[in-house]
Every structure is written in C-alpha cells, then in structure tokens.
Amino acid sequence: MDELVTNTLIVEPWQQHMRLDQLLKNQYNTSSRTYFQKLIEEGFVVVNGRAVKKSYKPEIDDEIEVQFILTKELEVLPEEISLDILYEDEHMLAINKPANMVVHPGYGNWTGTFVNALLFYCKSLEKQDTIRPGIVHRLDKETSGVLIAAKTYEMHKKLSLLFSSRQIQKRYLCVSLGCPKEITIQAPIGRHPVYRKQMTVLAVGGKEAITHLEVVKSSGALSVVSVNLETGRTHQIRVHMRHIGHPLLGDSLYGREGENQLYKAKRQMLHAESIAFIHPITQKEIVIRAPLPEDMQRICHSIIQK
C-alpha cells in the first residue's frame, strides 16, 4: 500500500488564479506536473476540504491539503549523515536529534532528514516501501533530544502501540517566558481557524491534550520548566505554554519576537530530555537520556545563576 504524507499550504496572493496542478508543481518542486495531476485526479488533493479538478484556480487564503504518495518518482534515498546514537540493539535505536534536523521527508525537506540518515545506517530499512521507515514518533524540526526508531517491522508495530496506548513516558525541558505555575494543563488542541499553519486550544473540535509542568528554576523573566506529556499532539507543549501566557523562548510561531531577539534565541528552547518504557521484546526497562545542547545550556545556566 502506498505511504501517505500530508502537507497543508495556504494560497498566497501571487498564487491566486494559477491552475492547481501548476501551483503544486511550483510550490513543491519535487516532482513533475503529471505527478500532481495524478494526486488531484485520485482525490489526494483537496481545497478547503473538497476535491477539485486539476484546472481549478484557487483564491487567496484557500487551504490546500496534499497527500504525497511514495512512487518511483518520489524516492527516499540513503544519505551518509552523522548520528549521535544514545542506545541501540537489534530491534531499535535512539539518537540525540540536533536542532534543525527534520525527522522525515516532506515539503521543503526531501533530503538531509533523519530518515535519509537512518536508511544509510540501517540497510535493512531500504526494503520497506514507505516514506517514513522506522519512524514511530516525531520531534519538531527545531526541537532537540531523544528520538527513537524501529529497525524491524515487528518492532515498529510494537513501539507504535506503546506510543498510542500512552505507555511511553516522555520528559522535556524547555525555557519559558516568565514563571508559570506548576500545573497540569488539560486543553484540547486543533488547527487554528484563521492562522492555518498554527495549532491552538479549541473548546470545540480539538483533540484531548494533557501536559504536566514543573518549574525547575526561575529568574522571573525566564524559567527552566520540566514537562511531562500524557498525549502527543502537534506542537502540544508550544501551544499549551502560549495558552497559559508563558510561550517558549525562541519560538517564532507561538512566542514573542522581542524577547527572542533580546536573548538571542534562534530556535525554540525545547529539548526531549528522556524517554522511558518497557522494551516490548526483551521486557526490560529502557531509560534513554539526551544531554542539553549548548544553546540551551547557556540560557539555563544564566537562569540558575540568578
């Protein structure tokens, strides 16, 4: 079965009245116009939630959702990229993902991803007909820290089940603006009704999202916060922190540009510090930790010293 990866784009003024197939060819620049015509004809492209013809000409702010199908035209190739491996056995491995590494191929990042590196490192994964071989969870591009992947199809199924049944404990460290309370945030998350590239808290239509916060240290202006997730929604920590009035330092989408510039934070200060679970094959407890990257060390140290 073909593997699907979904991307969403909002039509810009310069794209209006352009044929849909040509717009997609220009926007993604990964495959031929014929490829995108196939996606449109088979219903893998919708505009504002409905199927349209390839000749359709979108308007400004229309939302186009594209489901990419892995074909011979759209290959995912192995690349020799260094990986900081934290744990490995015959079934899985875990790396310390650097900030700015994308987990799997998608719009704007068809090469240089963790998947490209994983295919080179683990040759057996090349046999899997998927655009995301081995991937069982994700981290945002700018988020650093523990990222695990399955090396076999059996382990992929078992790890995916652990994640979906909330049997994997995920702990993050972040730097927030101000000093939040030590609370549990229970606020459903869905796509923002106006700013379609963002997620937001929605009273109606959002998916359950639960985040536990514990303040490690605060200077008043900034805080080091330990975060435990019960759920794994898109941008969950970033959205919940903004929701309570304490967005992440360096977050260009949900944060405050003035403070980002003041503290010279070039990316969101969010790090997946540890993952703990019972290995589904060996039944041994696995705890994997990733050290803080230098940029977060610098900021956290300055908070602790105050």
Short summary:
The protein has 306 residues and is of the alpha+beta class. 21% of the residues lie in helices and 28% in strands.
Rg value: 20 Å
Q: What share of the residues lie within helices? A: 10-25%
The CATH homologous superfamily name of the largest domain equals: Pseudouridine synthase
Kindly state the mean pLDDT as a whole number?
90
The quaternary structure here is single chain
DSSP, total strands: 15
For this structure, what is the CATH class of the largest domain?
Alpha Beta
Order of helices and strands, N to C?
Answer: EHHEEEEEHEHEEEEEEHHEEH
Polypeptide structure, described:
With 306 residues, the chain is α+β, with helices and mostly antiparallel strands. It has 3 domains: 66 residues, Structural Genomics Hypothetical 15.5 Kd Protein In mrcA-pckA Intergenic Region, Chain A (Roll), CATH 3.10.290.10; 81 residues, Pseudouridine synthase, CATH 3.30.2350; 112 residues, Pseudouridine synthase, CATH 3.30.2350.10. It is 21% helix and 28% strand. The protein has 7 helices and 15 strands. The strands form 3 sheets. Strands 5, 6, 7, 8, 9, 12, 13, 14 and 15 form a 9-stranded mixed β-sheet that branches. Strands 1-4-2-3 form a 4-stranded antiparallel β-sheet. Strands 10-11 form a two-stranded antiparallel sheet. Strand 10 and strand 11 form a beta hairpin. Helix 1 packs across helix 2. The radius of gyration is 20 Å and the shape is globular. 35% of the residues are buried. The model has no long low-confidence stretch (mean pLDDT 90).
